[in-house]
């Protein structure tokens, strides 16, 4: 991937976007920008943004577009984004995609590639219901597919693992519906702009990572 690559990871909840974004961040030294992580941090800090976002997240609804676009605009101005970035969970509406295009245009930039991760519905539910996240460093685990060495404790930093509020069964089904209604149209949006690459999101984490690197390599060639 060329220096300064700007990538979007698109896919339903539980597709593995966060898992793969961390691998790509390490591989290409381009920061992962997860709007979900930024919002959860804001909720934990109980500031203005967190208070506005918490009820949407708990219900599995999307936070209003302009709030998210402003948040990403601020993040993209930071120095570490000069070498590119991996957007994880943004954009997820057509309005957000248009907002991103405008933001990048003002910066004299454009996206290089949108990786659309495909995972069947049954697997998504299994992945989300078993997900555990470290309170300390944000590392991701799965109780069956990638369990920590000691139950409830992060291998990396010793932090406590927790289950996200929005990974309860009823919220998962609403998140999937919201994805189909509001985010899936981005597949055609980016295909029409010749930016879309489809990635099979089933298999070992490392193998999926290799598929992504291969797809990004083609873009840079
Ligand atoms: P967000 O945090 O973005 O959640 P999401 O898009 O629903 O995606 P997830 O984080 O659930 O899944 P993922 O694809 O990252 O999968 P992961 O790698 O963790 O958003 C949360 C909420 O914030 C939204 O509902 C909304 O309210 C709000 N929000 C965020 N962005 C917004 C925006 N732009 N606009 C408006 N609102 C916004 O993997 C899942 C599990 O599977 C893990 O346990 C992992 O270990 C495991 N796993 C991963 N890959 C594999 C594999 N290959 N094999 C086996 N297990 C695997």
Describe this structure in words.
The chain is globular and about 45 Å long. By secondary structure, the chain is α/β, with parallel strands linked by helices. The model has no long low-confidence stretch (mean pLDDT 94). The protein has a domain at 5-120 and 183-216: P-loop containing nucleotide triphosphate hydrolases (Rossmann fold). α1 (17-28) crosses α9, α2 packs across α3 (48-59) and α4 packs parallel to α5 (94-106). The termini are close together. The chain is built from nine helices and eight strands. Strands 2-3-1-4-8 form a five-stranded parallel β-sheet, with helices on both faces. Strands 6-5-7 form a three-stranded antiparallel β-sheet. The longest helix is centred in the last third of the chain and has 16 residues, at 205-220. Bound molecules: BIS(adenosine)-5'-pentaphosphate.
Task: Supply database-style keywords.
single chain; Rossmann fold; 221 residues; five-stranded parallel β-sheet; binds BIS(adenosine)-5'-pentaphosphate; globular; 14% strand
Structural class: alpha/beta
The helix fraction, in percent, is 40-55%
Instruction: Outline the biggest β-sheet.
Output: 5 strands, parallel
Straight-line N-to-C gap: 8 Å
**Total strands:** 8
The level-1 CATH class of the domain at 5-120 and 183-216 = Alpha Beta
Number of helices: 9
- The CATH topology of the domain at 5-120 and 183-216 comes to Rossmann fold
Residue share in β-strands? 5-15%
The overall pLDDT average reads 94
Q: Ligands bound here?
A: BIS(adenosine)-5'-pentaphosphate
CATH architecture classification of the domain at 5-120 and 183-216: 3-Layer(aba) Sandwich
Gyration radius, in Å: 17 Å
